[in-house]
Amino acid sequence: MKAVQVSGYGGPEVLKIKEIPKPTPKSNEILIKIEATSITAASTMMRMGKPKFGRLFLGLRKPKVKTPGTDLAGIIEAIGSEVVNFKIGDQIMAETGLNCGAYAKYICLPSDAVIVHRPTNISPEEATGIIDGASTTLAFFTDQTTIKRDQRILINGASGSIGTAAVQIAKEMGGEVTGICSTKNKALVQDLGADYVLDYTKNEFLKSKKKYDVIFDTVGKLSYFKSKKHLKSNGVFLTPVMTFSTLILLIFVSPFSKNKLKFAATGLRKEELQIRDLIRVRDFLASEKLKTVIDRVYPLEKIQEAHSYVDSGRKKGNVIVIP
Ligand SMILES: NC(=O)c1ccc[n+]([C@@H]2O[C@H](COP(=O)([O-])OP(=O)(O)OC[C@H]3O[C@@H](n4cnc5c(N)ncnc54)[C@H](OP(=O)(O)O)[C@@H]3O)[C@@H](O)[C@H]2O)c1
Asked: Which of 219, 242, 309, 320 to mutate to test the pocket of ligand 1 (most atoms within 8 A of CB)?
């Protein structure tokens, strides 16, 4: 079967398509024919081995796993003798985390991994595309803070993968939502349900006087210090982006401030929490409370081009690859 393989960290050129043996499921595993996978910003960071301390988990000198890719939607082609929760022909969506393996025609996963049935009204592209943004958002909105009805929620990077999911989920949870994006993406963010849209190219957020209960800086571009004056007392600042300065703030500043800064590496949490969030994503999709924004779809052969596009930092929502 065709699969992407890497032998080191680097730019998109490290992604090579190779012929490798099709896997066979062990007794507790399912064999999935992958119909679509997504190129997340996180998977491009994993390709580069950045930030460098991430290599403690990914592999110090080179990636521990050869086939990258963490999100997928597909159909079950075979099951091991002990599998009871899935059957051949089931349509599923799954997140593989650090085990990766999604940039391939097939993958074997343990039947108790982060896998859920895919709603019948959702395409493989829509299913894989939403996993990263929506699961990350739900993790932050459940475990790092709790969104309450009528709270004011600010989503920075509202046109990205996490941002497009976060705008919709915050709205669904009853929040009053303000999205920050560039001029060209204002209509998109409005269509997703944002009550207000601010343009970052015109510095509209920093110029405004409004205060929020939650600021979710999905792209790690806001300053915690500059944003603090826009937080209500006890308001929280959430970020999924770990940088050296975030680390310093988390250790030395946030614990002593009434406006907490919170970070989580959601893909490193216990599988039971990741399954909980993926079930909620599935249910949101099934009831059409969440839609996947798809920017571009590439064939597997153009994996390097797909990664280069995601590297640009300009994608709207999600980028999909069809193996
Ligand atoms: N901690 C975790 O568990 C976790 C999980 C998943 C992802 N992440 C990380 O979260 C980050 C975001 O991921 P993502 O997939 O949502 O990103 P993404 O989709 O690649 O973000 C791209 C979007 O960001 C917008 N953007 C760029 N600069 C901006 C700025 N200064 N202000 C506001 N918007 C801006 C772009 O719009 P324009 O083109 O208009 O600028 C574009 O639409 C990544 O660093 C990723 O590694 C962390």
From this structure: 219
